UniProtKB/TrEMBL annotation, chain A:
This is Histidine-containing phosphotransfer protein. Pfam families: Hpt. It comes from the Eukaryota. Keywords: Cytokinin signaling pathway, Cytoplasm, Nucleus, Phosphoprotein, Two-component regulatory system.
Amino acid sequence: MEIVGQLQKQFVDFSTSLNHEGFLDEQYLQLQKLQDESNPDFVCEVVSLFFDDSEKLLNNLATALQQQVVDFKQVDAHVHQFKGSSSSIGAQRVKNMCVAFRNFCEEKNLDGCLRCLQQLKHEYFLVKNKLETLFRLERQIVEAGGTVPVIG
Amino acid sequence: MEYCNCFESPWPADELLMKYQYVSDFFIALAYFSIPLEIIYFVKKSAVFPYRWVLVQFGAFIVLCGATHLINLWTFTMHTRTVAVVMTTAKVLTAVVSCATALLLVHIIPDLLSVKTRELFLKNKAAELDREMGLIRTQEETGRHVRMLTHEIRSTLDRHTILKTTLLELGRTLGLEECALWMPTRTGLELNLSYTLRHQNPVGLTVPIQLPVINQVFNTSRAVKISPISPVARLRPAGQYMPGEVVAVRVPLLHLSNFQIHDWPELSTKRYALMVLMLPSDSARQWHVHELELVEVVADQVAVALSHAAILEESMRARDLLMEQNVALDLARREAEMAVRARNDFLAVMNHEMGTPIHATIALSSLLQETELSPEQRLMVETILKSSNLLATLINDVLDLSRLEDGSLQLEIETFNLHSLFREVLNLIKPIAAVKKLYVMLNLSPDLIEHAVGDEKRLMQVLLNVVGNAIKFTKEGGISVSASVAKPDSLRDPRAPDFFPTHSDNHFYLRVEVKDTGSGINQLEIPKVFMKFVQSQPLAAKNSGGSGLGLGLAICKRFVNLMEGHIWIESEGLGRGSTVIFIVKLGIPARLNESKLPFLHKGPGNQVKFIFSGLKVVLMDDNSVGRTVTKGLLVHLGCDVLAVSSGDECVRAVSYEHKAVFLDVSMAAVDSFEVAVRIREKFAKRSGRPFIVALTGNTDRMIKENCRKVGMDGVILKPVSVDKMRSVLSDLLEHGYLVESQ
């Protein structure tokens, strides 16, 4: 039980820090609320969906920005999608980066867009990392026989 | 010899020749001096002369020449050196000036010549313009004539006047000797001479229509010159002189049937008349192009005017016909109304009159049954009673029908127990079924409420009748009765397009199906089944001896219609059994209303699942992550969610079963407003459409405005929390709109 307690504390600290650092916001907590006995893997499913979707979008963005003639409308559409999915998940920093990205798209600033893309990738991988860590902690808690604490 | 420094005259002293030369020189000089004077005089007179200084030069040249000749006069005799010097000077000057002039003339003469050319050119042009003016004037004349002609022709709608006027005016305008119109006969095989200019009453000549000259004219819309000796042109007795040129043109005869609503008249089925125009025979006149054009235009106008006249005639005839028909119809209607009223009165009176003796018979027969009777007597009395009862029922049915017909039948509405009604009917029918060894099945759907509001007696009558018929026409097998609450979609019977059940919270539609394994009904007979007094199977009726067969189903149909419902039969054919289905509208007892609608309970959190349990909604979002999240949210609240990602899918999938449609408005590829409009259109005809709610991450006021404009019932701001969604759903279901658009 010691281990469980420790793991649980770790989990709570980590979640709180994620919230404070702005990686995940209230929306993520809402998602956790939706998980129940009839839907035990809801959060995991949604997050995996988000990962797949985001990776596809990032690839599309890279391709679109490498074109001879950049179609900023297309780029904007991709970023819009990304913004939508990241805000549904609660990935706040990613979402904010998308907002900045969209501004550059409107200005048709190619350099700005390329820079944004790099930062977006950076933010995305950061939050992916954090989420994977979070899930790992949850698995460890469950394997150790405990229950995952609910935050908020 | 004197030394006088003189020159010898170069000429020999021949007196006569000298004299002549002397005189000639004198005159030459004179002429040479007068020429410049004349030129100056005339140039001064003329206003324009561009080459003045040329003139000066030329004048100088001439003067000097003249001077030379003048001075020459002195050289005939011996002359002094001075004279010779003067002579020489003059000659030199003359030479210079002449050369200069000669050189100048090289430049001037081409100019002058070109002036002449230009003058010639201008003269030609003027002549040409004159000619053209003449032509234009002629054309304008022609145009005026055509306009005048057209005006004359179109100012009347009478066929004869039109044609007569045409011929008259054409004759006058073109100065024709003769002008004639050949009309096709009814058979279309001949042309009949109908109108001529000079002879007011034509002889009635006919000409077959298949002549080559006629075909030639009919095949083109232009006026064609024809030979004066062709049959159509031989209108006058042969004169002494050469007959004038003859021209013929076709006149299309348009019929009403040629004018389709959307097309121009078909050219292939045309009939034509032939107009023949003859120039005066003793003039050398020829047909000019503009005259031919005039003729063609007039022919067209005549065609139009004739068709107008024809159309007018037709429409007047049609109108007269319609008026007659109207009058006849009115009369027929009044007669029918009288007949119906008479019949109803008769029925009512007769029923009353017939009812009294019947009731007396029944009453007394029942009393008789109570007394002491022998077995044969008892049998007889029972038969009398049964027959009287049958008769009484029949009379009652007839009475009911007549009351139904004149609309005076009122339903007796009250609350009754629906379930026990079914059980009672089946109890009544079970003995008869048992005798025929038929099974009887009753299936009441679980969502059928126990109590309903309606006319119990008549509902039972309908049910009994239908079930009774089922039993009657079934020899083996059985019947099954099932009752349920009708779903909105299944309420529509394609055979009854006027049946529009409306949804409301106080009523429901009861659907009853009575299926039997009996003799079935031929497809063709189905419509007759509900008609009065028609029996499709007289033999079977004799065997079963039922009650009121002839009127039964007709009365059922009336009752069902009174209950705002619909009844019909389905059968796969003879020997395959039949199913009678009827739907009637029943009320829901008032005091039970609240518990019927499960949505209004606002219970604490752990009852969340049951409140919206099974609430069907549609969700549209093209972002897979967002869609999954919102779907999860709604599922968590207990809804039955159909999630789609495109507008088309959404519109297709939305049905009456869904209570709400959630549209994500921030989608780029799909216009959610358009989807909302389409959904509204889909449900435009009936009430009870699902609520449409927009989900947006944008706080812009415009979005809310646009949502309202499109007719959405509310807007929710993303991200949506569980509590927010719960309150949204509650608001929608309780109030029908979102109390606050969040």
